[in-house]
């Protein structure tokens, strides 16, 4: 007697045990969620890099600092992170300089603190959702492995009522369980790749921000 089993991916998912199906559904949802953040982060970092390039080009072109400051304050909501850092430092510098009996060091310290606070806020915003991608990349394979182990246990428990166990009788159950591991890897691999890529891009932006802050403070130090 020949036993035929439909082992298409869809049938394996539909015939899996309830727990394994829940694991698969969770992993597919997490994968969809992570892909949403991957694309959002891609477009966000591309925009941030473009705005940073534009602002640095305008800043180092020799333009007037007051004009750059007015431009930044006029449309702060749509400005890039580096422009907002510049605006925070320049605003604090001008505010402290207006005070009586204020030396240059106090003005520079105020600008430095304001830019450092703005830098941290901007970096937190840029890194938003990045820890989620890291969690998906590290946890998803283990969640898939749990579904696989559970599915294999369920498949072998089903053999308790079978007098003669054959590979054909246990193979579908094992195949159903292994799909959970495959979905876990499908969710984890893009998240890990995206996390590593975006973390590297964010580190480069952070270095550019810090370099600009030091150079800008040197320029302010020469202001009369």
Automatic annotation (TrEMBL):
One of its GO terms (cellular component) is plasma membrane. It is a multi-pass membrane protein. The keyword Mitochondrion does not apply. InterPro entries: ExbB/TolQ_transport, MotA_ExbB_proton_chnl, Tol-Pal_TolQ. The chain crosses the membrane at residues 12-39, 130-153, 173-195. Signal peptide: none annotated. Part of the Tol-Pal system, which plays a role in outer membrane invagination during cell division and is important for maintaining outer membrane integrity. The Tol-Pal system is composed of five core proteins: the inner membrane proteins TolA, TolQ and TolR, the periplasmic protein TolB and the outer membrane protein Pal. They form a network linking the inner and outer membranes and the peptidoglycan layer. Belongs to the ExbB/TolQ family. This is Tol-Pal system protein TolQ. It comes from Parvibium lacunae.
């Amino acid at each position: 007697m020949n036993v035929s089993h439909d082992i298409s991916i869809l049938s394996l998912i539909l015939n899996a045990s309830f727990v394994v199906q829940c694991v698969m559904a969770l992993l597919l949802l997490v994968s969809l969620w992570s892909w949403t953040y991957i694309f959002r982060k891609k477009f966000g970092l591309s925009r941030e890099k473009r705005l940073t390039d534009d602002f640095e080009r305008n800043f180092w072109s020799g333009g007037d600092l007051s004009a750059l400051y007015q431009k930044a304050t006029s449309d702060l909501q749509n400005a890039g992170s580096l422009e907002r850092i510049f605006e925070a430092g320049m605003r604090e510098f001008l505010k402290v300089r207006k005070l009586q009996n204020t030396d240059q060091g106090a003005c520079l310290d105020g600008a430095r603190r304001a830019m450092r606070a703005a830098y941290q806020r901007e970096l937190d915003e840029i890194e938003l959702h990045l820890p989620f991608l890291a969690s998906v990349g590290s946890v998803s394979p283990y969640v898939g492995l749990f579904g696989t182990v559970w599915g294999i246990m369920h498949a072998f428990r089903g053999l308790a009522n079978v007098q003669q166990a054959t590979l054909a009788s246990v193979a579908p159950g094992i195949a159903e369980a292994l799909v959970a591991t495959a979905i876990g890897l499908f969710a984890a691999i893009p998240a890990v790749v995206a996390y590593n890529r975006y973390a590297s891009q964010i580190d480069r932006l952070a270095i550019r921000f810090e370099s600009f802050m030091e150079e800008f403070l040197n320029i302010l130090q020469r202001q009369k």
